[in-house]
Amino acid sequence: MITRTLDYQDGDTALEAYIAYAETDAQKPLVLVAHDWTGRREFACRAAEYVASLGYIGFALDMYGKGIFGADGDTEGNSALMAPYATDRALLRQRIRAALTAGRNIAQADATKVAAIGYCFGGMCVLELARGGADVAGVACIHGILAPGEIANEQLKAKVLCLQGFDDPMAPPEQIQAFQQEMTDASADWQVHVYGGTRHAFTNPVANDEELGTVFKEVAKDRAYRTLENFLQELF
Questions:
Q1: pTM of the model
Q2: Nearest-angstrom CA–CA distance, 46 and 131
Q3: Of 23, 41, 103, 194, whose CB has the highest number of CB atoms within 10 Å?
Q4: What is the domain count for the chain?
Q5: CATH code for the domain in which residue 171 is found
Q6: Structural domain of residue 112, as residue ranges?
Q7: pLDDT digits (tens, 9 = 90+) for 73-103
């Protein structure tokens, strides 16, 4: 497996992606990986490598800026990093579209076959990519933030998959229901899988904050990744 970093820009903001792919002469589908609220740290990089193991190019994108990271357990600091994008969806869409452009320009990528997956805050990011009408095959939101957003001219082209915990305090059942209605109203091709007895960040082995509601659950992680693999196969 080849892994490397890639510098790219959003206007004047320097960004750094982490890329993973199997060495081959053939171009591969591109899968953007949007990080959680701590930034493009090890978890996002390992997710890009997981994507590469499936036969795609994993592109762990950078929403915050090169060298800008949060830390596990720093709720206040991580919230401050995420807040400008959560409150300004235009800025969020601009930033993730910069990653989409950079990813499509990778020589090894098949620019006609692109998807995006995102974790937690990254789930919001990929949903906004879809809501903004980006020409991607599909997006997968994994224990993501499902706060509603504006769908650009009702041009939601991407298929949408959400993998959520029923007991996630950051995306309670009523929010999941509202999201499903939002996607239905937009005539989207959508799926939502909800895992019982499961809280936020259930795919992350270092998620262990009971008070915050972030708890790793291996059986839910395994089920989610099987569903994700099927989804990507369907897209490509």
A1: 0.96
A2: 27
A3: 103
A4: 1
A5: 3.40.50.1820
A6: 2-235
A7: 899 999 999 999 999 999 999 999 999 999 9
